[in-house]
Amino acid sequence: MNSETINAVKELLSRPQKIVIVPHKNPDGDAIGSALALWHYLTGIGQETSVIVPNDYPKFLKWMPGCGSIINFERENTQAKEKIDGSTLIFTLDFNHLGRIGQMEKPLQEKVGQIPFVMIDHHQAPSDYAEVMYSDVNMSSTCQMVYNFIESIDTVDKVTPEIANCLYTGIMTDTGSFKFRSTNGRTHRIVADLIDRGAENTEIHHRVFDTNTPERLRLLGCALNNLVILKEYRTAYITLSQQELDAHNFQKGDTEGFVNYGLTLEDVIFAVIFIENKEEGIIKISLRSIGDFSVNEFARNHFDGGGHNNAAGGRSELSLEDTATHFESLLKNYQAQLRP
Fold it and tell me: Which of 208, 234, 269 is the last residue of a domain?
């Protein structure tokens, strides 16, 4: 954080505020972890603070300290709107465009220009709705940024065991258990400090990764059975239809991490999963890569999405079959980047 951002945040927090913290739609470990960590910190310094999520989040995150205080905009709409209407300061975490919050976009858009917004995010191409922007695409996670935020405007001594558990979870999940390129020495030093301050690293790993249901494992088997390998493009992709999801009693979060299996194949550097969502009428797309191939650019150019160079998301309004066919047709345009 630069001095201008630090001073702006300190000035905002120098007086009582009614703060709302908002992560992106379909929040993941980094979104929930950063939102709850910031909630613990702001509440701890005496600010009236609420976390409002656009919709539900996976069961494997619902153990996190403070999750019982989270307001779900879809299920608790009246309460959520009252909090937003009465807010004097809004923090948006782990996204940089209001289009990423689904039905919450309209009520938040109405607050733009009326009250200050603070953005904390590590994705590319931020929009300009926030008066205070802490944006850094080189960060491993928004949770790492929240640690920096607390350190910059206050002191890391304010990091309680509850905050440490939340931040560790977000950093761990968004770095692929510390294996992605965005993980650096600073990331590991922060993680070490979080453990020293009470983060239960072994227990966190167990709660996030070792609480599978039989249905989820069978769904993974179905996904791997659908795996298509395109050796000439060093690419692999998976499709999952709504019928397949329903047959395996799909729950939110069940497909988390499935896309990464493609990258475990020797000589594959580009992996994608296409998941049919009949309720929204779209195909949800997750893209991952190894090396210099930018899935952020690929998603932005072809699937109305974006994210990071090596991890991005997108969507398609074609059928599942037509989306996969269209995807394959695009690869010839990237032959030079995908071949050795």
Answer: 208
Q: What is the 3-state secondary structure (H, E, C) of 301-326?
A: HHCCCEECCCEEEEEECCCHHHHHHH
DSSP letter, residue 184: -
Neighbours of 335 (CB within 10 A): 10
Token pair recorded at residue 245: 């999801």
Give residue 175's domain range.
Answer: 3-208
Task: Report pTM.
Answer: 0.93
Strands (DSSP E) contained in 212-310 are: 228-230, 235-240, 270-277, 282-289, 306-307
Listed residue (248, 245, 307, 310) closest to 278, CA to CA: 245
Say which residue the tokens 């993941």 belong to.
28
Report residue 181's pLDDT band, with 50, 70 and 90 as the boundaries.
confident
SS3 call for 153? helix
CATH at residue 284: 3.10.310.30
Can you tell me the distance from the alpha carbon of 175 to that of 183, in angstroms, rounded to the nearest whole number? 6
The angle at the Cα of 300, spanning 295 to 302, to the nearest 5 degrees, equals 95
Count of residues for the chain? 340
Q: Are residues 69 and 160 located together in one domain of the fold?
A: yes
Distance between CA 95 and CA 31 in Å, rounded? 9
Output phi, psi for 121, to 5 deg: -165, 155
Cα(8)–Cα(12) distance, integer angstroms? 6
Q: DSSP 3-state assignment of 282? A: strand
Residue 36 and residue 64 in contact, taking contact as beta carbons nearer than 8 Å? yes
1 vs 242: CA distance, rounded Å: 43
Residue 197 maps to which CATH number? 3.90.1640.10
Q: How far apart are CA 223 and CA 240, in angstroms?
A: 6
Question: Which single residue is written with the structure tokens 């179905």?
Answer: 222
- With a cut of 90, say whether residue 339 has pLDDT above it: no
- Mapped onto helix, strand or coil, the DSSP state of residue 99 is helix
| pLDDT tier at 276, thresholds 50, 70, 90 | very high
